[in-house]
Every structure is written in C-alpha cells, then in structure tokens.
C-alpha cells in the first residue's frame, strides 16, 4: 500500500513540503519505520508497520486507519501550503520553522522601509502564525494516533481513525483524576481536534458509559482541577471543559450522523435534580445540572437538546430560587473550586447562568428559547428573566452577605446578555468573526422586545453587566434603528422598530461612553458603506439616506452629551466647566463624523460646490433635529 509521505510524518513533514525547512529527522521522531522512497513523495510501510498491515485480522483495519490518516493529513497539508505560499506572501511575512512542530511568522525587513505596521497587519500576522501552528499541532496529533493504532493493529481492528482516537480518549478518561500531566495533555490534544467530529464525539461519550458516568467524570475532573494553586492542572482542566462542551454539542445534534440517542437529553434532565457522587469531602454532592452546566458553557447546541434543559432550569429557579445555591459547599474550601474551571461568569454552582452561556453560543436555540412561552410559568422566558424583580443567584463560594457576593450576582445578567445577543444576531456572542445579523421571522421580534424593555423611558434600567451586550445588539441592528426614523423607504424594505422606543433605547445605550462608542462606530460604518452602495442608484436616494443618518447621529451625540452632564452632576468633585469641555469636544467630533462620509461621496460623484453646500445644510438641519429629539426628551424626563 502506498500513501503520501505527508500522511505519515506529521508536522515536520508538512513543514518540509511547504516551507523547505529542514526540521528534525523524520525517521527518528516517528515510531514506525518506513522505507526510503526517493523524490516521489510516496512511501510504503516496512518493518513493524508492514507486519501490522499484512494478512490477518489487523490488515483491513490498518488500511482503514491509514486511509483516514491520509485523507485528513492531505487536507491539512493543503491548508498549510495555502497559508505559507499564499497568505504569508500576500501579507509580506516569512514563516520560520522553530522545530517540534512550531513556527513563527515575521515581517521581512525591506531596505528603506520604516518597518512600521498597522494594527491590522500585526493582527493578521498573529492570526496566520496561530493558524499554522494549530494545523501543525493537528498533524502531530494524527501522527501520534496513527502510530498508536498501527502498534495495536495486531490485537485490535479499527473501523476508522476516529474509532482509534475515541477509544484512546476514553482509555485516558478512565484514569480520571489519576491522569498525569502528560496523559491529560494527550487527552486534550485528541479531543481538541476531534470534538466537532460526530464519529469521534458520539463514540467518546458512549465510551464514558452514559449520562451519569459522563457527569461523574467531568464533576471529579473539574473539582480536582480547580482545587489548590496548581496553575498547570487548572489550565488542562479548562481545556477539558471546552473540549467536552464542543464534543457534547456535536454528539447530541440530531442532524449529525452518528449521534447520541434522544434518551441522553431526557436522562440529563432527570439527573439534573439528583445528586451526583463526585467528591466524598462535599457536605452534599452537587446536582446533575450544576455539573452539566460546566459542560454546556461551550459548544453550539441544537435547540432540541438544550432548550428543554434550559427551560427546566428556568422553571426550577422560578419555583425555588435558592434550590441549587443552598447545597454549595461552605467553609474551608478554595473559593474558585467548582464546575466552571474557566472562571468566567460564576463558579459553576448556578446552572441558570451556565445554560444561558450555552445559549449564548447556540443562536439557533436561543431564538426559540426567547420566543416561546413556558407553559409551567404562564409566560415566556424573556419576560421571566428580564423581570426587574428577578433574583439572580450569587454564583460563588464567598459568604452570601459579603460585597463579593453582590458582585457574583453579575454573572447571571452577563450570561443573559450573551444569550440575547445570540438570539438577535444569529452568531455566538463571542464569535471571532461574527457574520452580519441573520434575520428571520423570530429575530426582529426579539430585538423589538429588547428595545421596549431596556430604554431610558423606564425607571428600572438594565443591570450593569448587561449593558455591553445591549450596545453590541444595537450596533448589529444599526441599519434597522436608522430605518425607524425614516419617513421613506430608501432601500429594500426592512423591519422598522417603534420610533419612540428606539429613541429611548439609543438614549440609554449611548448615554454611557462604551455604548456610545459602539453605536457611533457602527453608524459611521453604516453610512460609509451605504453611500458607497448607492453610487449607482442616483444622488437623490443617497441624499435622503445620508440626511436620515445625520438625524440618527444627532441622537447618538446628544444622548452621550446628556450622559456626560449626568456623570458630572453626580460626581462629588465634578465641575460644570469640565463637563462643558467634554460636551464641546464630543460635538465637534460628531459634526465631522456626520459630514465627512457625504463629502467623500460628493467628490467621487463630481457634485458641484453649490450642490454640496445645499446638502450639507440639510445634513446639519437633520443632525440638529436628532439632537432636539433627545434634548426635548431630557426636559420631559426632568
């Protein structure tokens, strides 16, 4: 059997093929011997490998594993070639082999060049370096899995490389807290590159035994990893948390083939209110939902799996708000010890925060979750969770009456904001490159409810941890917010929200500096791209567009001006003259931002100076109109 050389020697081989770097001796680093094959880029097994691939039980299994490895590594090789020979060249960087499957990317000095780089170029270089290193790490993992599978081929026939990898992962997981650092790293490496593969993830969870066994394993590992001050162990446990979440999302998606049976979901719900034996030192063992919550924080889940769980958790909280927090350990334990090793948004004892974080990564589940009614509650999840009297648990081991406990209550509203972001934008709240909002029959309705619920006209404002999410939601819907102030349809029809609610929503969000920056940046981009798109539509449509946008920009600027005045009014040592200077600076910047996009457009279109002046006058009129909308509203509020 003959397969490409790159499919046998992992990361170093790919480096040789794509960069020409020498690297280490391939035969020395690979545990299987391969015969020399000249310059034809193909190799045939010899020695131990040839024996395992020979006649007998292991032969067909060995061939299947080799075929799988070949397919995966060939794909990785193609990606590395593109990164090194196309992306790196286009960016002007060189890829250097550091050995042991690692590279660094650096800009090549050109004589006479100042070597100054924009932040965008620096970010692109870092992304490229990280991408290549991830690809090479993946090849190393496949290389190791292949060698291990071939060594076992005489005793075990694998149907695929995925089966060999899932079996090894389950074998390592069986060691539990006895895993050495090296073994733990191996488990994470296998899961890292295979968690989203349904063949692997389904087999892995099945190998754990079932829902209860999966919870017991993760519960013990998370408590072990968050105990004490072993930072290396904690880092490995954080990786496991993410890997198990991604794998569970893949394994429970009914559209994947294969996938876990629906009984896993019903069993998780049954176990959610039962204690899971994880640590004899606990006063009482945790509920299943507390342990499961740590896993659900990662992965994009199918609504058919996560929404019944999330709905059940919300109902349980409604019936007994302190149910889960009353059973958390007290006294003498590490304050960070729990089921959320990531340390983000709670210690992991409140499953409500956990499932909301899960929905924040699962937009197609978050949409129906916030749109549907919960029969047991008599109203929807949106109304339940945004009720001003809703009691958010303090997801922490600190004393309930301490200041730290009050801060720990921020985790819930923060997670709620993330789930709402996913619901209205159609992307995970923390996606690296979020796509443009994917609107459908549900998303505008949810955004309308957000706008109606959180605005300056209401006395019960949003919790502080929710405000950054409101700003990002507003920025994602900046086009629809603009349409809400237009008397005409100047582009394809879009959902226009209620004008008064939008005004009050923007006044609330843009009243604070971070919110203003987010909305103003989105508005600037919207206007610039909108004018560019209208260069072929005629000047009348472009002028109507930019005049309406000027009104919205005026709303944003005056909202922030109002916020500045409020901040200085409430500051103990604030002086009115300081507030005035800040507002004046804001005004000047706002005026420039309002007119500059049009002036660039006018120059491109060859408009005469008198024509430009007429439009600028209209832009300024609309800008002042937008400011008046907020200032009038401010007077009424007083």
Question: If you had to describe this structure to a student in words, what would you say it looks like?
Answer:
- There is one protein chain.
- With 638 residues, the protein is mainly alpha-helical.
- Helices cover 62% and strands 3% of the residues.
- The chain contains 26 helices and 6 strands.
- The strands form 3 sheets. The chain has a two-stranded antiparallel sheet with strand order 1-2. A two-stranded antiparallel ribbon has the order 3-4.
- A hairpin with a 2-residue loop joins β3 and β4.
- The N terminus is likely disordered.
Q: In terms of topology, how is this protein built?
A:
Layout: E1 3-4, H1 10-19, H2 26-29, E2 42-43, H3 48-52, H4 57-91, E3 93-99, E4 102-107, H5 119-152, H6 161-173, H7 181-194, H8 198-208, H9 211-226, H10 231-251, H11 263-271, H12 288-296, H13 303-319, H14 351-360, H15 363-371, E5 373-374, E6 379-380, H16 381-386, H17 403-408, H18 411-425, H19 443-453, H20 467-476, H21 478-483, H22 499-510, H23 513-533, H24 539-570, H25 576-605, H26 609-637
Antiparallel strand pairs: 1-2, 3-4, 5-6
Helix pairs in contact: 1-4, 1-5, 4-5, 5-6, 5-7, 6-7, 6-8, 7-10, 8-10, 9-10, 9-12, 12-14, 13-14, 13-15, 14-18, 15-18, 18-19, 18-20, 20-23, 22-24, 23-24, 23-25, 24-25, 24-26, 25-26
Our measurement of the CA-to-CA distance between the termini, rounded to an integer number of angstroms, reads 83 Å
Low-confidence stretches: 1-13, 19-58, 489-493
Helix content: 55-70%
Mean model confidence by pLDDT:
84
Rg over alpha carbons? 29 Å
Shape: globular
**Structural class, please?**
mainly alpha
Oligomer: single chain
- Counted beta strands: 6
């Amino acid at each position: 059997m003959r397969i490409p050389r790159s499919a046998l020697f992992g990361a170093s081989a790919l480096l040789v093929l794509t960069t020409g770097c020498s690297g280490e001796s391939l035969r020395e680093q690979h545990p299987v011997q391969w015969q020399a094959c000249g310059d034809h880029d193909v190799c045939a097994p010899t020695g131990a490998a040839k024996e395992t691939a020979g006649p007998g039980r292991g032969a067909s299994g060995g061939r299947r594993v080799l075929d799988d490895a070949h397919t995966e590594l060939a794909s990785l090789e193609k990606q590395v070639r593109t990164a090194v020979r196309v992306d790196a060249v286009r960016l002007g960087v060189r890829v250097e082999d550091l050995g042991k499957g690692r590279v660094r990317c650096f800009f090549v000095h050109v004589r006479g060049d100042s070597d100054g780089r924009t932040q965008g170029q620096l970010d692109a270089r870092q992304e490229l370096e990280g991408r290549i290193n991830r690809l090479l790490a993946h090849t190393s993992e496949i290389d190791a899995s292949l060698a291990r599978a071939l060594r076992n081929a005489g005793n075990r026939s694998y149907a695929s490389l995925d089966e060999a990898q899932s079996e090894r992962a389950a074998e390592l997981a069986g060691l539990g807290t006895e895993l050495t650092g090296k073994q733990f790293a191996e488990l994470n490496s296998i899961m890292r590159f295979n968690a989203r593969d349904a063949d692997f993830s389904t087999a892995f969870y099945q190998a754990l035994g079932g829902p209860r066994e999966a919870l017991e394993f993760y519960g013990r590992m998370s408590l072990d990893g968050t105990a004490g001050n072993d930072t290396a162990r904690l880092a490995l446990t954080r990786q496991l948390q993410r890997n198990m979440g991604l794998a569970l999302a893949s394994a429970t998606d009914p559209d994947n083939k294969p996938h876990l049976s629906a009984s896993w979901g019903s069993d998780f719900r049954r176990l959610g209110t039962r204690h899971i034996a994880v640590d004899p030192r606990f006063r009482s063992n945790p509920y299943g939902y507390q342990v499961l919550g740590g896993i659900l924080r990662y992965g994009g889940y199918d609504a058919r799996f996560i929404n019944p769980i999330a709905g059940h958790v919300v109902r349980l909280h409604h019936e007994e708000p302190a149910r889960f927090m009353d059973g958390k350990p007290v006294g003498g334990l590490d304050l960070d010890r729990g089921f959320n090793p990531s340390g983000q948004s709670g210690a992991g004892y409140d499953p409500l925060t956990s499932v909301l974080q899960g929905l924040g990564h699962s937009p197609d589940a978050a949409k129906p979750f916030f749109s549907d009614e919960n029969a047991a509650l008599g109203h929807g999840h949106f109304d339940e969770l945004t009720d001003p009297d809703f009691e958010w648990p303090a997801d922490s081991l600190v004393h309930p009456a301490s200041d730290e406990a009050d801060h720990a209550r921020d985790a819930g509203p923060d997670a709620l904001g993330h789930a709402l972001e996913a619901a209205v934008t159609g992307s995970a709240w923390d996606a690296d490159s979020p796509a443009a909002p994917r609107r459908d029959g549900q998303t505008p309705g949810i955004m309308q409810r957000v706008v109606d619920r959180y605005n300056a006209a209401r006395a019960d404002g949003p919790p502080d941890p929710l405000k950054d999410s409101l700003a990002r939601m507003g920025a994602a819907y900046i086009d629809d917010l603009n349409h809400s102030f237009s008397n005409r349809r100047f582009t394809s029809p879009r959902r226009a929200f209620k004008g008064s609610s939008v005004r009050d929503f923007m006044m609330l969000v843009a009243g604070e500096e971070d919110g203003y920056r987010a909305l103003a940046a989105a508005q600037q981009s919207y206007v610039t791209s909108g004018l560019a798109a209208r260069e072929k539509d005629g000047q009348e449509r472009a002028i109507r567009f930019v005049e309406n946008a000027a009104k919205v920009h005026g709303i944003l600027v005056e909202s922030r001006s109002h916020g500045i005045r409020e901040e200085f009014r409430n500051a103990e040592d604030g002086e009115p003259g300081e507030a005035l200077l800040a507002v004046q600076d804001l005004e000047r910047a706002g005026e420039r931002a309002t007119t500059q996009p049009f002036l660039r457009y006018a120059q491109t279109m060859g408009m005469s100076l008198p024509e430009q002046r007429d439009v600028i006058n209209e832009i300024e009129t609309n800008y002042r109109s937008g400011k008046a909308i907020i200032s009038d509203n401010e007077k009424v509020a007083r």
